[in-house]
Amino acid sequence: MQMGLKVLIGSRGEHSLTTEVNQGLHIDLDDHDSALATILEEARLRPFAGIIGSDDSTVELAAHAANRLGLPHNPPAAARLTRRKDLARAHLMLAGCPVPIHCLIDISKPLDHQMAGLPWPCVVKPLNMAASRGVIRANNESEFENACERIRRIISESPDPFEHDHVLVEDYIDGIEIAYEGYLHQGELHTLAVFDKPDPLVGPFFEETIYVTPSQLDADTLSIIKQRVQQACTAFGLTTGPVHAELRVNAMDAWILEVAARTIGGDCARTLDNGNNKNLEQLTVSLAIGEPVQPAAITQSRGVMMIPIRQAGLLRRVEGILAAQKVPYIEKIDIVISEGHELIPLPEGNQYLGFIFAKADSPEVVTAALRAAHEKLKFVTAPIFRLASV
229 to each of 110, 181, 211, how far by Cα in Å? Predict the structure, then answer.
C-alpha cells in the first residue's frame, strides 16, 4: 500500500476479497478464542506493525490481539463496551454522560408486566446490530409489542444467548441528529468532521440518508458535541484510533446515542478524502502503528447520500444513473448491490443500494444536489415468491 506496509486481511472466508493485491487469513469471528490464536500464530511467523478492527464485530478481537502483541490498542474491555448497546448505555449513565433513560426487556418472557412505566414514545433496538437494523419507534403498548415481535425475528439467529433474548428500550429523544468523526491519540480527541443529517429521523424506522459537512450548528453547540464525545471515550477507556459517534442535539444537551471505536461505515469515508493521499484509512493505519499523521483540513462542503432501500424484491436494474451523474456538483455515484440480489428494507435489512457523493461551496448546495440526483434514479425490482414447506 502507499504507506509501504503489507496488508493481511482476516475474514470469515478462506481468502481476502481483494486477493489480487492482499493476502487473506481465515478466522472464525464467532469464536474469539480460536480467532485470537490464529492471529497470534500468524504474528509469530511474520510480526505485525499494527492491527485494526474494521467494524463493530471485530474491534474487540483486534484490541485483544494488539494487547497480546504489544501494539497500539484500546483496552479490550473498552472495545467491548462500544459494540454492546446495553453495556454502553449503563456504563455511560454511571459516568454521568447524557444518554437516554433506558432498560432491558426480555422478549422470551411475557411483555405485559415489563411494559409498566415505559416512556412513550420509546425506541426499541437489538443489543448488537449496526446500520439502524431492527431499530423501531413505538408510541404505545400495541406498537411496542409489534416492534418486539419484528425484532425477535431479526435477532433469532444471534449466537449469543443474551443478545438473542433481550432488546434495549430507551426514551425517544426529540431533536436533530448528527454524526461525529474523529480520532484519539494518547486519549485526546481530535475532530475530523461533524456531519449534519438534514432528513428528519423521527421513526418508526431510522433510515439514514444524507450526511453533509461542515455542520451548520453554531460554535458553542459544536464544542458541546466534542465535549460529550470526549467524555464518553474517557468513560469507556478508549485511548487510540478512530471514533465514530452519533448524537441527538436539543436545547437540553447533546445526547450520546453511539460511540464506536471505528471509522464511519460503508463508503461514507470518501467524503473525508482530502486529495493528498492522507485519507481516513491511512490515518487509521498510522494510529494503529503508533505513527499518527496530521490530516489536512476539509476546505469545501461535502456530502454523501446512502441510497435507501424503499421496496423489497429482486433488483432487476437501476435506471437514470447517467442523468443523476450530470446533476451539478455530483462527484460520483456508486451502486453497490448487484442486479439479481434481494433488496430488504429496514428494519429487517442492513444494506444501502449505494452512495451518491457531492461537493460544493455550501452545505445547502451539496444537500440540494444529492436530493436532485437521487430523484433521477429509478430502481426496478421484481417480486420474490417463496415456497412454503408442507
Answer: 37, 10, 18
User: Of all helices (H) and strands (E), which one includes residue 65?
Assistant: helix 59-69
* Residue 197: how many other CB atoms lie within 10 Å: 17
Listed in order, strand segments (DSSP E) in 90-202 are: 102-106, 122-125, 136-138, 166-171, 176-185, 188-196
Identify whether the C-beta of residue 381 lies closer than 8 Å to the C-beta of residue 311: yes
CATH 3.30.470.20 describes domain 300-390: yes
Q: What is the residue whose three cell numbers read 486519549?
A: 187
Least-confidence region, from 23-27, 55-59, 123-127, 175-179? 23-27
Helix (H) or strand (E) holding 359: strand 354-360
Fold for the domain defined by 101-171: Dna Ligase; domain 1 (3.30.1490)
**CB crowding 208-226: b at 16 or more within 10 Å, else e:** bbbbbbbbebeeeebebbb
- Find residue 314's DSSP bridge partners: 342, 382
pLDDT grade, residue 2 (50/70/90)?
low
Helices (H), 195-258: 219-236
What tens digit of pLDDT does each residue of 160-209 get? 999 999 999 999 999 999 999 999 999 999 999 999 999 999 999 999 89
Tell me how far CA of residue 265 lies from CA of 253, 255, 289, in angstroms: 25, 21, 22
Domain ranges of the chain: 8-73, 101-171, 300-390
On whether the CB atoms of residues 305 and 270 are closer than 8 A, the answer is no
Q: Is the peptide bond before 347 cis (omega within 30 degrees of 0)?
A: yes
Long-range contacts of 342-345 (CB under 8 A, 24+ apart): 342/312, 342/313, 342/314, 342/315, 342/384, 343/309, 343/311, 343/312, 343/313, 343/314, 343/315, 343/379, 343/381, 344/309, 344/312, 345/308, 345/309, 345/310, 345/311, 345/312
